[in-house]
Amino acid sequence: MSDKKENSVSSSGKGSMKKKLLIFGTAAIVALGGIYAYGVHYYDTHFHRNQMINHTKVGNLTVKEAEDVFTKDFASHTISLKEKERTEQIDPQAIGTVIDVGSQVKDLHAGEDKWTWFMDFFGEHNNKISLTMTYDEAKLKEQVNALACFDKKNIIAPEDAYVKKGKTAYEVVPEILGNTVLKKKLIAKIDEDIRSGVTEIDLEKEGLYKMPKHFEKDDDVQNALATANKYTGCTITYDFVYEDSVLDYATTKDFIKINDKFEVKIQGDQIDKYLRKLGDKYNTMGGGRYFKTANGEKKWVADGDYGWKIDAEKEKAKLIKDMKAGADVKREPVYEYTAEVRKKDTDIGDSYVEVSIASQEVWLFVDGKCIMNDSCVTGDPTKNAPTYTGAYSITYKQRNATLTGPNAGGGEYSSKVRYWMPFNGNQGLHDADWRGYFGGNEYRGNGSHGCVNLPIYAAEVLFKHVKEGFPVIIYD
C-alpha cells in the first residue's frame, strides 16, 4: 500500500508544476502582447526610437514635436560672421525668419511601420529633409547695416601697391588690404547660407572684402620698379673740360612718371627744365663776359653769337637714350654752337680778332701774340648803320666777293672785295681799297654799312690766320 501512495503523490506534484508553467507562460504572452500592443499604439503617433532627421534625434517624438525641433530652434540657425577683427552674429529671429518643413516630417513618420517598432531599438537611421526658410529682407539689411564692420570708424579702405621715389632708388609701397566689406555680396551670402543651413561665414575665405587692384608682387608692379631703377640708376657725367657736371638719381628721379597702368615714362618736359638749367650755367653764347683789351682795360662784352650752346633737342634725345640703356656714361653734351676754348673764366682763348669802335682799331692775336694792329672804319652810327658790339665768330671766309645792299639815302650799293670774312649776318671784316683814310672819326658821317673796313694788307693778314669759328670781339 505504501508504494501506491508514493506514486500518487508524485503524479500530483508534476501536474501542479505544469499548471504553474502554463499560467506563467500565458501571463508572459499576455504581458508581451500588451507591451507590443502599447508599442504599436505609441509609435502610431511617435517616431521610432532610432530615427534621426538631418542628424538630429527625433526618436520617441511626435510629428508635432519633431517639426518643432526644426521650426522653433532658431538658435541653431544663428549665422556667425567671422571678420578680421571680430565675430558678429545674424539672429534669424531678429530678421523675421520663418522655417517651414511642409509635410516632410509627417511623411517620414507615415512611412514608418508601427507594427515593427520593436525592430528599431538599435543603431541610428538618418533621414534628410529640406528646410524652407523665409525672412524679411528689409530687416536683414537693417541688421547688416548695424554691424560693427560697417561703422565708419572701424573701416580701413584698401590701397593699391605703388612705386614711389625713395632716397636712393625707386621702391614699392606695399598694398593695404584694409577691411572694407562688400555689403551686397555679404547679404547675398547670408541669404544663401540661411537657406542651406550654414551657420558660419568666414568673410576672408569667402572673398567678401574689397581688395586692392595691384599688389606688391604683381609682375606689372615689379617690372615698373625695375624699369624706373634702370632709367634712374645710371650716372651721366657731362665733361665741360674745366669741370664735370654729374646727372644721377637725385635729379633723374624727377624725370620719371609711372601711370596707373604701371607704364614707366620719361617726361620730356622735366628734361627740358633740367637742360635749361644746365644751359644757364654752361652756355656762353649770347651772354656777357669780361674781356681784357689790347690796351689792358677790362671790358664787359655782351651779346653776339660766339660761344658754347647746348643743342637742347638733340641732347634731350641722347639723354633719353642713355637713360634707357641704363649704363654709366661720361661725355660732352651735344652742342649747337661751340667756341674755341672751354675754360671757366673765358671761352675766347689766346687767338682772336679785337675791334675797338672808340679807337677805330683792329688787332689780331694768335696764341697770345699780336700779329697785326691797324686802323679801321666801322659802321656809321649817324646813318643808323652801326657795327654791333658783342662776341662773334667768323662764319666763313671768301676770296673775291661782291657785297651788295641798300644805301642809307636810297638805292643799292655793290662793292667788290678781295677778302671777305663775315661774322654777324651781313656784317664782316673786309678790305676797302676805295678808302684813302682809316681811323679817327671817319666812321661818323663816312662810315661803312656796318662792316669793319680794313686796309688791303691788314685784311690779307687776317684772312691768312682766321678760320670758321675764330672769335671776333667788338666793343665801344
Give a short synopsis of this structure.
The chain is α+β, with helices and mostly antiparallel strands and 476 residues long.
CA-based shape: rod-shaped
Helix content: 25-40%
How much of the residues is beta strand, in percent?
A: 25-35%
Major sheet details? 5 strands, mixed
Quote the CATH topology of the domain at 352-475.
Answer: L,D-transpeptidase catalytic domain-like
> Poorly predicted ranges (pLDDT <50, ≥5 residues)?
none
What is the CATH homologous superfamily assignment of the domain at 352-475?
A: L,D-transpeptidase catalytic domain-like
Query: What would the average pLDDT be, to the nearest integer?
Result: 91
User: How many runs of DSSP E, i.e. beta strands?
Assistant: 28
Description:
This protein has 476 residues and is of the alpha+beta class. Among the domains are: 237-337, Ubiquitin-like (UB roll) (Roll), CATH 3.10.20.800; 352-475, L,D-transpeptidase catalytic domain-like. Helix content is 30%, strand content 25%. It has helices at 2-43, 63-71, 104-110, 137-145, 183-196, 219-233, 249-252, 268-282, 312-325, 443-446, 456-465; strands spanning 51-53, 56-57, 79-82, 87-90, 98-100, 125-127, 132-134, 162-165, 170-173, 200-202, 236-239, 244-247, 256-258, 264-266, 289-292, 298-301, 309-310, 329-331, 335-337, 352-356, 361-366, 369-375, 390-393, 398-406, 412-424, 427-431, 452-454, 471-475. A 5-stranded mixed beta sheet has the order 22-21-20-28-23, with helices on one face. A 4-stranded mixed beta sheet has the order 24-25-26-27, covered by helices on one side. A hairpin with a 5-residue loop joins strand 15 and strand 16 (298-301). The longest helix is centred in the first third of the chain and has 42 residues, at 2-43. The chain starts with a helix and ends with a strand. The model has no long low-confidence stretch (mean pLDDT 91).
